[in-house]
Write a structure and sequence with these properties.
homodimer; about 425 residues; alpha+beta; Aminopeptidase; Alpha-Beta Plaits; 2 domains; nine-stranded mixed β-sheet; five-stranded antiparallel β-sheet; 12 helices; 16 strands
Amino acid sequence: MLTNIKINEDRLWNSLNEMALIGATDKGGVNRQALTDLDKESRDLFIKWCKEENLTITIDQMGNIFARREGKNNNLPPIMSGSHLDTQPTGGRYDGALGVLSALEVVRTLNEFNYSTEAPIEIVMWTNEEGCRFPPAMTGSAVFSGLHDLSSALAIQDQEGVKLGSELERIKYNGSVACKSRPIAGFIEIHIEQGPILEMENKNIGVVTGAQAQKWYEVNITGMEAHAGPTPMEIRKDALVASSEVVLLVNSIGNNFQPGGCATCGVLEIVNPSRNVIPGNCFLTIDFRHPDDDKLKKMDEILRKTIKLIEKDKKVKIEIKQILELKSNSFNKSIINTIKDVTHKLKFTNKEIISGAGHDAVNINSIAPTAMIFIPCIDGISHNEIEDIHKEDAIRGAEVLLHSVVELANNSSKIINN
Amino acid sequence: MLTNIKINEDRLWNSLNEMALIGATDKGGVNRQALTDLDKESRDLFIKWCKEENLTITIDQMGNIFARREGKNNNLPPIMSGSHLDTQPTGGRYDGALGVLSALEVVRTLNEFNYSTEAPIEIVMWTNEEGCRFPPAMTGSAVFSGLHDLSSALAIQDQEGVKLGSELERIKYNGSVACKSRPIAGFIEIHIEQGPILEMENKNIGVVTGAQAQKWYEVNITGMEAHAGPTPMEIRKDALVASSEVVLLVNSIGNNFQPGGCATCGVLEIVNPSRNVIPGNCFLTIDFRHPDDDKLKKMDEILRKTIKLIEKDKKVKIEIKQILELKSNSFNKSIINTIKDVTHKLKFTNKEIISGAGHDAVNINSIAPTAMIFIPCIDGISHNEIEDIHKEDAIRGAEVLLHSVVELANNSSKIINN
């Protein structure tokens, strides 16, 4: 490890603060949704900073931006690092921006110290990671990885019927380079944890070993609406009582699949609710996650089997539809080990962690050796304007990224596919 | 009993059908909310029909309409019968209208047979029974009974801020007669059951012995919003899981207070729901009913005690606020016995029943001897455009009303206060 090279703490922090001004909200967060004028402004600033570092900019058909710093041997595939600059409507300052600007800080530091790596380095900004305006999420990296078709991605519409492709054109980020996979020696994304584990366990760095498998469901429960006064308990077909049984079932499945299982009902809606009417129809959603695909399959089986019992017991009809399935992801062991090694050498505490949320890195992992670095976020809060981090955590994360990228770029031939 | 007098089946049925045209909906129901132009139209039609029967019309300050048929001794206080003509937005054809038009049919029949009762008879149409446009419900009868202040009732606003009093003026039903209690020998209201018991038990007539006590609550549950992916089960403060425990608690309290107890959560709302966010805040309503005030008090105690346990167990804050309390009501035994006696003589099956819903009769019961007659409604459905009844049930109900009213009007001095 290059012990004489260090990132510039204030330069990193100031860049994060400057980027957070674009779309800044009154509550201290950021509303910078994909392909809006504010997204364009953040892209322009990012490119300006990259050009100041003499990087070569490439923009592909999905608006993904690559900023390349040549190495000693430019026939080698690059080491790539980055994340996204778009945010949720009530987003925070660091979700995404931390990953892009930490990668920029790595390059700025190497330029400052006039240090050349063997392989080239590329900073990347992926288009439409959040997917709140143009669902689904992580579209830019999905098309790049061949997991999503380019033309259907460009045809995605927002709630007003505006197409992703036409917004890319409007903000002039419809690049000409094909959006498709090419040789990448390794990809590292640094991101806030978006959960409370590192903070609770007082760890500096999360070494992300993979991402959870996910299954999402929609559930419709049909009972019979009736007047809450004159309808005896024993003949009711109360859709909300049945829904509540489902919510508690989901919660107990999560609790019974520890360690690692997560189970959440995020939405529950009564159709035409009224204080003195027994609910006749309810809609709810289920989000199941587990690092182990087999365990998730088992969670699914228990859910479906027990719902049948609730259906019979509560005299309602329950329809369950799986609407999303993501297999679990294991990141690249060589890169994980490099990150862990650097963390030890820097004398930072670390913990192996599984990502609960989706990230662009999960898509890139399907085409190139990939891993992630997490830093703690305060109270585990994200997708919220009060999302926050400690400056020293951002600095530690960027240091780990710097030395990991240099190590990998100088030894890219040693990265072994899992 | 006057065996030679019978109501005119088709006249009753045709009047119900004609009234149902005012505010008729595509699905076969009625939307004729209080003090709208349609309400005025139904009042005008009712008064036209009353005038054809030579009745004397009085309109009071709340727009309650009284149509009087003199008796042999007009110093006696009247026997009164009626209900309301306003409906829910998705109301049915018979909820309310049946009570007004059955009372009209009683008078039409007596006129047709040229039969004079001892005491006078009054048909009444109470203003704003439903309370959906101008909450709370049953305002006209409440002001008449001294249970609600006139000026505050006139000041009730709808969702657009329009006052009940100014709408009364606009439709020209702001009468000059004081809206206040006066001597009434007895009050009978006929109404659809709004529940399934008579139909299930195959009974023609419900002899209503009283109304349930009620307690309504609003509950706010505060946990902590967090990302459904990276937040471990054991540290969650899931407001929806806690809400589901409350829903099942409410349901089990209802089941444990049989016979007679009813317990319903009609509304449950998650604040800012999202599929992959653990719900942080929920709102729900509870509707508790029991014929016995002491049992209802016990239900309340168990609710509050158990909610404390849920609060602790689920690591959330639960605030519960009682927003309504109605004591139980016992109707007048003399009138109940008269109805029962008439039903037997007409060879109709009957069942003593407690009203689960509120009715104008419950208010009038506080100032005059009162009881109610229920007829079955199909599948127990009301407050729904598909609300329906069988013609023969309407006819049986009107027959029972006719002979009960005549019996009471001829023997009003024998009505004993409970």
